[in-house]
């Protein structure tokens, strides 16, 4: 003889399944929230890095729009400061590219600011190829493409009238 299940046994199983479903949905919501926080933090960090670069450019207009020949002639200290300036600029752009891959205006801003630094990057890459290797593959490709587009190439590494 089969016994029919009592109503609490029948509905108890449904309640347990509902509880498990709610717990799973809660876990998924937490994962989505963590991802959103990570994305927001990355965007905030990128904005801060780019703002820092902009402030540095404001404080050092001779590096933001450089006369590279004059910087080379000025001496080791100024060349070192300029190299640090360009490194900070590349880092800021690398961060913004990663955080705002879908926003073309960040790429355009970095493209605009990169152009006057191409002679330095050309010479630096020719003398020390490991310099560009300190940046991510996307940044390396961006710089190399920009060098080709502007026709800046060894041995003279001069910026043309493009």
TrEMBL record:
The keyword Membrane applies. This is Uncharacterized protein. The chain crosses the membrane at residues 12-32. Keywords: Membrane, Transmembrane, Transmembrane helix.
């Amino acid at each position: 003889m089969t016994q029919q299940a009592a109503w609490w046994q029948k509905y108890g199983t449904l309640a347990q399944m509902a509880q498990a479903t709610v717990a799973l949905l809660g876990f998924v919501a937490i994962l989505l929230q963590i991802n959103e926080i990570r994305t927001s933090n990355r965007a905030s960090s990128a904005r801060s890095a780019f703002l820092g670069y902009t402030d540095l450019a404001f404080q050092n207009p001779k590096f933001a729009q450089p006369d590279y020949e004059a910087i080379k002639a000025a001496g080791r200290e100024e060349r070192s400061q300029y190299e640090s300036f360009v490194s900070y600029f590349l880092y800021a752009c690398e961060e913004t590219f990663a955080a705002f891959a879908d926003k073309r205006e960040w790429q355009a801003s970095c493209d605009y600011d990169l152009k006057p630094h191409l002679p330095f990057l050309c010479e630096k890459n020719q003398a020390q190829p490991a310099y560009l290797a300190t940046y991510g593959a996307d940044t390396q490709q961006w710089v190399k493409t920009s060098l080709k587009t502007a026709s800046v190439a060894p041995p003279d590494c001069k910026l043309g009238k493009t």
